[in-house]
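Section 5: illustrative case.
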């Protein structure tokens, strides 16, 4: 029996269309199962894209470390002691911890997420002001809009220069006013603007990033009486390094330098972008696994429905099958016919589900664009569609096996007696 036999296809169509309501309701289960797979996988990808976009180009192998109060007495110092990181800690960390590639000391006016009055002519704004080294852009890149970044000469010579965010420009300067070369007053100290940047992030994080001002750390420490104190360290690790282990090693090195008890690691706070990124990746893997699990069982339920309907069809066609057997039809031909009917119904219904699911994801993508912070481009990969089709074929064959087996058990004589 050839797959190009038109009589065979006509017979399959006649069987499926004989009871259209039953066929449609049965196929709906398969269509919904495969559509659910497409929708859930696409939504998971959209969530992943959105969160990844919000993170911008921040190096995923970075970590951040700061000091807290000690929790254990040591070398004559009482617990609860405050202490500061120093400029010299930079080289210490780089020389003692092999997995560290880059250490950037950082400071900020007003402490964590602090803000200060910045003045330009008759306009005033409250912005985050950071003291940084040029290398920090390797950890959190920016998009240069005009001018230039900080450079090493700015740090070595403690130049009173700054790079401002785009939002700072919008709030302090008139439209068309020359920004680069102008000056702003920060806490009573004048700084010349050498560059304007745009954030590489999106959403709320981008808005906060655009409202920042960066000045050389050496200038920051001298202008605002910080001495050689550092607010925190931004550290770039080797991509293959264990983030948790690196954090422990850095804390141990700093504990010895600052006379902190070797076991008092709580005296240092730290946060790892690499660890966070790995957690997010694990979350997305879990979401995809759950989506696949739920969708496969939905497809399985649909396949079982098709199998049950085919059993009913076989029962209804008992006399027909008996006549076929009496006229010389082989068991193989009967099995091929029943499985073909099951497979065609499964593939047609599943293809409708794939088209609907893909269309829905594309429609959502066009509707929301880039307006939702944590959801972006809920695309469906081609391999997901291909695997979905393969799953449909397998389930279609499985759905037809039991009915086909029942069909070949029909004895011609008994079938001809059936009313």
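Designed sequence:
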């Amino acid at each position: 029996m050839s797959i190009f036999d038109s009589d065979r296809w006509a017979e399959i169509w006649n069987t499926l269309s004989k009871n259209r309501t039953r066929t449609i309701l049965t196929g709906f289960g398969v269509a919904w199962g495969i559509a659910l797979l497409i929708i859930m996988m696409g939504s998971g990808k959209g969530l992943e894209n959105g969160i990844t976009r919000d993170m911008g180009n921040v190096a995923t192998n970075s970590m951040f470390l700061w000091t807290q109060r000690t929790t254990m007495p040591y070398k004559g110092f009482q617990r609860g002691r405050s202490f500061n990181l120093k400029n010299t800690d930079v080289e210490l960390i780089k020389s003692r911890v092999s997995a560290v590639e880059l250490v950037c000391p950082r400071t900020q006016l007003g402490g964590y997420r602090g803000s200060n009055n910045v003045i330009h002519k008759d306009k005033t704004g409250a912005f985050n002001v950071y003291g940084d080294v040029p290398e920090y852009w390797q950890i959190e890149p920016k998009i240069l809009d005009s001018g230039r970044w900080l450079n090493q000469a700015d740090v070595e010579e403690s130049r009173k220069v700054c790079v401002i965010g785009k939002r700072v420009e919008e709030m302090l300067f008139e439209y068309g006013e020359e920004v680069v070369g102008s000056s702003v007053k920060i806490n009573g100290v004048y700084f010349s603007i050498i560059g304007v940047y745009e954030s590489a992030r999106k959403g709320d994080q981008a808005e906060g990033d655009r409202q920042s001002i960066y000045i050389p750390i050496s200038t920051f420490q001298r202008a605002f009486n910080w001495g050689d104190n550092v607010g925190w360290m931004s550290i770039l690790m080797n991509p293959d390094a264990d983030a948790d282990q690196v954090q422990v090693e850095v804390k141990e090195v700093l504990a010895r330098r600052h006379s902190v008890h070797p076991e008092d690691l709580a005296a240092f706070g730290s946060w790892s972008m690499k660890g966070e990124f790995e957690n997010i990746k694990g979350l997305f893997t879990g979401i995809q696994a759950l989506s696949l699990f739920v969708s496969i069982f939905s497809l399985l339920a649909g396949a079982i429905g098709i199998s049950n309907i085919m059993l009913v069809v076989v029962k209804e066609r008992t006399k027909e099958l008996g006549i076929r057997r009496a006229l010389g039809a082989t068991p193989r031909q009967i099995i091929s016919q029943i499985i073909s009917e099951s497979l065609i119904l499964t593939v047609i219904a599943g293809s409708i589900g794939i088209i609907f699911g893909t269309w829905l994801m594309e429609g959502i993508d066009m509707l929301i664009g880039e307006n939702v912070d944590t959801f972006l481009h809920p695309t469906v990969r081609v391999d997901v569609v291909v695997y979905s089709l393969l799953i449909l074929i397998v389930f279609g064959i499985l759905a037809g096996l039991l009915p086909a087996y029942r069909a070949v058990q029909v004895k011609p004589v008994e079938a001809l007696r059936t009313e």
